[in-house]
Every structure is written in structure tokens, then in C-alpha cells.
Amino acid sequence: MADVKKVKKAKAPKVANPLEATIDVASQEMIVRAQELGIDTVFDRAVTMKPCAIGLQGICCKNCSMGPCRLPLPKDGIEGEDTRKGLCGATANTIAARNFIRMIAGGASAHSDHGRCVAEVFMAAARKETEAYQIKDTDKLLQIAPALGVDITVDVDGEIKDRDIDEIALEVAEVALAEWGKPEGEILYMKRAPEALYEKWKKLGVLPRNIDREIVEIMHRTHMGVDQDYKNLMKQGTRAALADGWGGSMLATDLQDVLFGTPYPVQSEANLGIMKEDHVNLIVHGHEPVLSEILVAVAQSQEMVDYAKEKGAKGIQLGGICCTANEILQRHGIPTAATFLQQELAIITGACDAMVVDIQCIMQNLANVAKCFHTKLITTHPIAKMEQDNVIHIEFDEAYALEDAKKIVKMAIDNFENRSSEVMIPQYKSSQVAGFGVESIQYHLGGTFRGTYYTLNDNIINGRIRGIAGVVGCNNARTKHNDGHIKVVKELIKNDVIVLTTGCNAIACAMEGLLTPEAAAVHCGPGLAEVCETVGIPPVLHLGSCVDNSRILLAATEVVKAGGLGNDICDLPAAGSAPEWMSEKAISIGHYFVASGVYTVFGVTLPTSGAPVFHKYISDEFEKITGGKWDLEIDPIKHAQKMIAHIDKKRAELGIDKARERVLMDMADRQKLEA
Ligand code: SF4
Ligand code: MSK
Questions:
Q1: Domain identity same for 147 and 278
Q2: Which amino acid residue places its CA nearest to atom 3 of ligand 2?
Q3: What is the DSSP letter of 244?
Q4: How confident is the model at residue 115 (pLDDT cuts 50, 70, 90)?
Q5: Does the CB atom of residue 226 touch ligand 1 within 6 A?
Q6: Cα–Cα–Cα angle for 187, 193, 197, nearest 5°?
Q7: What is the CATH number of the domain that holds 441?
Q8: Residue 419 near residue 351, CB atoms below 8 Å
Q9: Protein residue with its CA nearest to atom 8 in ligand 2
Q10: Which atom belonging to ligand 1 lies closest to the Cα atom of 68?
Q11: Is the CB of 99 under 6 A from ligand 1?
Q12: Does 443 lie in the same domain as 413?
């Protein structure tokens, strides 16, 4: 094993100090290993390359070639009028707003283009043009069809009868695909929101028309010399973010569920220790489950397992990174190998026989790291290639999905015997239960007779559960890996706030053992612990990948519908958080949460600090418009406490704060928590 302490004593911090870079012991060991081998990782690069302070504050404009125009805040702040302006006269507010909504456009396009790919595969399955994909979950199909205006009981002649499932699937595919570019109307799923919220959006004029249009309009409005009013720019940012959360992402989630099955709780494991020295290790990384679903089926086939044994391995170990991990975990229980920041480390184990990547969150340096080992790095998506010559591109075609998947799995198996360097797999992994969703929360926390989310609402009203938090998002090499995630989540559950998680936050929580029912007794306040122990759920519920944040929107809607907690999402004792965000997708997610009425706190930084008026607008002013607001809090405990304060404010507004005092202000419980 590598000696962590030895590196701690190293003087010149040209490389990362593993103890400062991450709280995860497996990652610490692998950072040391990388440094011993002379391979740089993102942790080291974060030490040697500092971010641009002006860009960080959101006040650098490079939207035309007269710039970049940089508008630093004066050292002593601004007294009186803010006279900063770019060559064209653009103010700091305009520049920050333009940059902010361009980030929304980037994030919304990533989620939504992912959704479009799924919709195209869905269409191929509905038309029965592919053997690899079928309509698997017909219950889910029947559940989403009415929301897309597809009648499930009236046939084309208007007669009442149960329609043929193939016919429904085809119509759902046609309507869904049209959501990206239909010429008129609004995104159909907007009406799934609580009525009060839908009416609010309508009044504000922010109902998205179609997904692509809202993203394109951001690019137009932020072009040099177009929209110069930060409030009007944010209006378009809101439309595009809503088109993501309630459109592209929600369609991606639903269509994936119909194609591959709606997730239900499954048991699995997480961290680099899931890799096995005597197995072929095939790691899938990225976001779309379209290929990884088939890879799972092929890698688990007897033919491939036998082939692996012929080649001297004991079997095939599949593992996931980032949201591909979350997708194959929630539907098949495939273990999670790594978070975003650990992707290079998975190769540095020397045991990664192939890493298959598709889209989003894939570091280009993977190719440089793979060069140092035998690892085959395989890109599969036509829109995401790498320039390095050691990268193999096998373009995935859904018409030949099985053949492509077999080729990839065989390539990994054939590579097993080529392992060139010493294998070092850190022996750390944790158990996890994942695969929660709107349906399974209803099953675990619902009531058979009294309304779908009755038990959850009842426990919120009586105060055992103080509130609900959605904690999501990435890792960021500018902050200690997983530290913010874990501190925020622990502080929330300690204070009886149930946590819904997705993305890399979910992976971090899994690595920390927070996704097990047993975690409730160890980490929760007495009220939440009692509920978790009674129904047998973890205090942190893993709802899937980044696009599955749409599940959180629908879960919140179900809570509203179940009654007793107001009539809009902004009435709920709920808050959102992304403690270690880095991706443009996080800004889009954050903004569709804010636009849906959720108080949303980000850690690390927000690209708005250089334009205080604009920052105030998206926080305080926005709260008056949508009921949701942005906030930034770097300290994880204060971050969680701000969320709890908001939850308590909402409890007081609902008149349910007294109930909580009765239930929880027991001295023995308090002492137990403080200990
Ligand atoms: Fe500068 Fe205006 Fe051009 Fe931006 S658009 S780079 S502020 S001149
Ligand atoms: S993978 S977007 S680092 S959560 Fe969805 Fe993780 Fe963030 Fe990528």
C-alpha cells in the first residue's frame, strides 16, 4: 500500500496533498499511487492552475472580438453608481446575466440532447425497428401517456376501449419527439406541476414553447448587441431551465423508465474497491443508459462470462462512474466505481481493462492516463470524440446495439492478459441501497387508503420529519472531494431532514455508507430515525442520475397533491443544494428548482458575485417572483443550517412548527444528538 503520511510531509505543494484533496481514503491512496508513478491527476492540476478571479465572478465578457471585456469589482466595493462597462457599454449586470443564462443553455442542452437520443431510440423500439430495445415497462407507459395528451382508452375512431399498447407507444414516441421542436403550444409536461405553480408560470410568461427554441433563443439574446436587460435575460433563462427540468430531463427519465424499467430499491456497493484483480474490469462512464443497458446484458451473458474464463479471468466485473453508474445501478444493482473526480483513479488501479465513455463529465486527461496502462479507452458517441491517438472510437448505432456491445465487451476481455503494471485496487467499498423514485417513495412512505404520499406528509406535519432536501450535483476539484457533500447531508439528517439525492452527491453518500437503512440509527435525529426504522428506508434516498432530478420535481408535486402542506412547491418545508457543483448542468438544475419555488443553495462559488445587483435579483427579488431563490454558502454546516432555517420558516408559515416542538424537544434526544 502507498504511504499516505510520506506525501503529507512533502514540502513543495507542486502536487496535491491527498489528505487535503479528498476525505475518501480510497482516493487518497490512489492519489499517492499516481504521484509515485509520476502521473498527474485533476487533484494535482487544481494545485498548479489557479482559476481566473474575474471569470469566477461572472464579469468577463467575450461575446465579441472587441473583448474580452473584464469588469473587476473595485477593491473597496462600489459606492454610489456602478459605472463599470465594457467597450459596447454592457454593464456588469448584463454581462453576468448573459454568462449565467449561457450556462443554463449549456446545461439544458446537455440534458435535453440526452433526452432526444433516448426519444429516438424509444421511437425505434415503438416502430419495432430494433431487436435490442423493447417497451419494457408498460405500466409506466400508461402512466405518462395522458400527460402527453395520448389517450389510453379511446381509440382513433373515438370509441372507448383499451388501446393496443404498441399503438400507444408509437403515439407517445411521436408526441415526445415533437417536444423538442414543435412550432406552437407549450411543453406538455408543464401541466404536471401543481396548478398554482403552472398558473404562476403562465402569468409570468415563462412557459417554455419547445425545448430547442428556448436554448437557441438564449444564444441569440446573449449575442453582442441584443438583450441588455438582466431581468429580461433571466426571464429567458427561466424558460430554458424549465424546458430542461420539466421537459428534456423529465422526458429522458420517463422514456428511459419505459424502455429499461422503472427503478425500485436494489442493494449494491460503491467505491473503487468494487474492482476485482482477478476479473475483467469493464468500467462505463458518462450519462446515457442507451448503450450501458445493452453492455450490462451482454457482459452478464454466459457466452461472455465463459469467454472471460477462457482468457484466465474469474469473471467480468462491471462498474460505473458518474451518472451512467447511477443509471445501471438503479435498474440492475451494478456497483458504482467512482464519482466524477475519481475517474482517472479508476485507471490508475492498473486493473481497468476497458473504460467505455459516452457524453458529459468525461475528462480529456483520461486518454493521457490510459496511455500509462493497458486500459482501452473507448468513445462511443458521435458528438463526443477525443483527439489522442490511443483512444478507440466505436460509434454506437442502436440498430446494431448488440453487435457493438459484444465487440466492446470482447475487447475488454481480450485486454485482460495485457495488464502491464502492478495492480493496486484500494480495498474500500460501502454497501448502498439505491433505486428510489416517485413510485417507490409512494410504496414505502405512502398510504394505501388515504392518498398517495399520506405517510410522508403526515410525518412532516407531525414533525418527525422536519422537511425535505434535494442534495445533488458534482464534485469540484477547487474544493475537498466529497467533504461538502457529506457534511451537508449529515447535518441535514441529524436535524431530521430527509434527503433526496442524485448524481455525484448520491455516489459520495453511498461511499460514506449513508444510503443504508442502518445509517438512520447512527446519523439521524430521533424523528427521522424513527420513520426510517419503521419503514426500513435509508435517510438519504438515491433517486438516480442528473436527468432524474426531474423525479425530485415530481416527488415534490406528489407531496403538494397529498395535501396539508400548502398548494404549491414553494409552500413546502423543502430546500435544494449542490455543495460541490462544477457543471453548467448544475446551473440549469439549480435554476429550474428556483423557478419551481425551491430555495437552492450552492457551495464552492457562484458566477454572480462580481455583479451584486444581479446577484440580489436572482436571490431576494426572485423569491418574490417564484417563491424560490438562489443562495451561495461555502461552509457546509452553515450551508445546511441555511436550508434548515428556510424549512423552519416554511413550517411556521404552514402553522406546523408547534407540532415539531412537541415531538422532538425531548432532552434525552437532544443529549444523544449533541454527543
Ligand atoms: Fe465587450 Fe460588449 Fe463585446 Fe462583451 S459584447 S466583449 S462587453 S464589447
Ligand atoms: S455526473 S454533471 S459530475 S453530478 Fe451527472 Fe456528477 Fe455533475 Fe457529472
A1: no
A2: 474
A3: I
A4: very high
A5: no
A6: 105
A7: 3.40.50.2030
A8: yes
A9: 361
A10: 6
A11: no
A12: no
Distance, in Å, from the CA atom of 513 to the CA atom of 520, rounded to the nearest integer, reads 10
Asked if 119 contacts 288 with a C-beta cutoff of 8 angstroms, the reply is no
Residue 504 CA to ligand 2 center (angstroms) comes to 6
Closest ligand relative to 110 C-alpha: 2
Which backbone phi and psi does 575 adopt, to 5 degrees?
-155, 160
Tell me if 330 CB under 6 Å of ligand 1: no
> Annotated binding residue at 591?
no
Helix (H/G/I), strand (E/B), else coil: 147? helix
Q: Whose CA is nearest to atom 6 of ligand 1?
A: 67
The number of the ligand nearest the C-alpha atom of 580 reads 2
Nearest atom in ligand 2 to 585's CA: 2
Residue 60 is assigned to a ligand binding site: yes
CA nearest 27: which of 503, 504, 481, 490? 481
Number of domains in the chain: 3
Q: Is 338 in the pocket of ligand 2 (CB under 6 A)?
A: no
Cis peptide before 68 (omega within 30 of 0): yes
CATH number at residue 121: 1.20.1270.30
Separation between Cα atoms, residue 357 and residue 391, nearest integer Å:
11
Question: What confidence tens digit (pLDDT) does each residue in 322-336 have?
Answer: 999 999 999 999 999
Q: Which ligand does the CA of 60 lie closest to?
A: 1
Residues 479 and 620 grouped into a single domain: yes
Is 361 annotated to bind a ligand? Reply is yes
Residue-wise pLDDT tens digits, 65-98: 999 999 999 888 888 899 999 999 999 999 999 9
Determine if ligand 1 sits within 6 Å of the CB of residue 87: yes
b (16+ CB within 10 A) / e for 419-451: beeeebbbebbbebbbbbbbbbbbebbbeeeeb
| Residue 592 shares a structural domain with residue 453 | yes
Distance between CA atoms of residues 524 and 493, nearest Å? 5
The 3-state secondary structure of 482-520 reads: CHHHHHHHHHHHHCCEEEEECHHHHHHHHHCCCCCCCHH
Rounded to the nearest whole angstrom, what is the distance from the C-alpha of residue 53 to the centroid of ligand 1? 18
Residue 346 has a pLDDT of 98
What letter represents residue 380's amino acid? T
Are 317 and 274 in contact by the 8 Å Cβ rule? The answer is yes
Measure the CA–CA gap between 615 and 43, rounded to whole angstroms: 30
CB of 92 shorter than 6 A to ligand 1: no
The pLDDT mean for the chain works out to 94
